[in-house]
Write a structure and sequence with these properties.
The protein has 225 residues and is α/β, with parallel strands linked by helices. Helix content is 40%, strand content 21%. The structure holds calcium ion.
């Protein structure tokens, strides 16, 4: 059973989310206080986290970053939930390691669809267990990316994006191809999301000059051989 951790301090919203997620076959656990989130993540090992942006004493963004840095749970998919709608915040939310983002108030069917889409895209079914391209290697079993032998940290969406690029080193993937391969047929993803995650991936790889992940003008992206 898929376990969803609900990080939310509004009791009414927790009740609503639990009821609806359980109705759709998910198991739920909750953390209503930011201080216990990390501990709950480590003991419960959820398959996905719904993270409220505004929590007393601690921000969802900081928790997100903390989760991304912990080797045992760093690839847990995270959906950030916030009351702020500004576009800048959306990008900022993604840059801190969330995989998706929803604005309150949201509809339950949309939330369920986004959860299912996110879970689909983080389940990677590789042909090879270890991929290499240039100075990069990616190990599916260890969930590890090495650059010249050094481990690099990244979230599940960047891991999957890199895995797809590394399945065919040198091949230029269009944004549309990457959207389909990484995000599936989710109707909620905007094309520029690909660019946001490519930027994150480059930052994760310390690839300031786009030497590892190439932009091919008007075509798309490729990993350097
Ligand atoms: Ca809140």
């Amino acid at each position: 059973m898929t376990k969803v951790l609900i990080v939310e301090d509004e009791a009414g919203l927790v009740t609503l989310l639990k009821y609806n997620l359980e109705k759709h076959g998910f198991e739920t656990v909750e953390a209503m206080d930011g201080k216990i989130v990390m501990q709950t993540v480590l003991t419960e090992k959820p398959d996905l986290i719904l993270m409220d942006w505004m929590l007393p004493n601690v921000s969802g963004v900081d928790l997100c970053r903390e989760i991304r840095q912990h080797p045992d749970v760093k690839l847990t998919p995270i959906i950030m939930v916030t009351a702020r709608a500004e576009e800048a915040d959306k990008v900022r939310g993604l840059s801190y390691g969330a995989d998706d983002y929803m604005t309150k108030p949201f509809s339950v069917p949309e939330l369920i669809a986004r959860i299912q889409a996110l879970l689909r895209r983080v389940v990677v079914k590789p042909k090879n267990r270890v991929l290499t391209a240039g100075v990069l290697s990616l190990d599916f079993d260890k969930k590890l990316v090495l650059k010249s032998g050094q481990p690099m940290h990244m979230g599940p969406t960047e891991f999957r994006l890199l895995a797809i690029l590394m399945e065919q080193p040198g091949h230029v993937f269009s944004r549309e191809e990457l959207l389909k391969l990484v995000w599936g047929d989710s109707v909620f993803v905007e094309p520029r999301t690909v660019d946001v995650h490519i930027r994150r991936l480059r930052r994760n790889l310390d690839d300031d000059k786009s030497e590892l992940i190439r932009t091919v003008r008007s075509s798309g992206y490729a990993v350097k051989v």
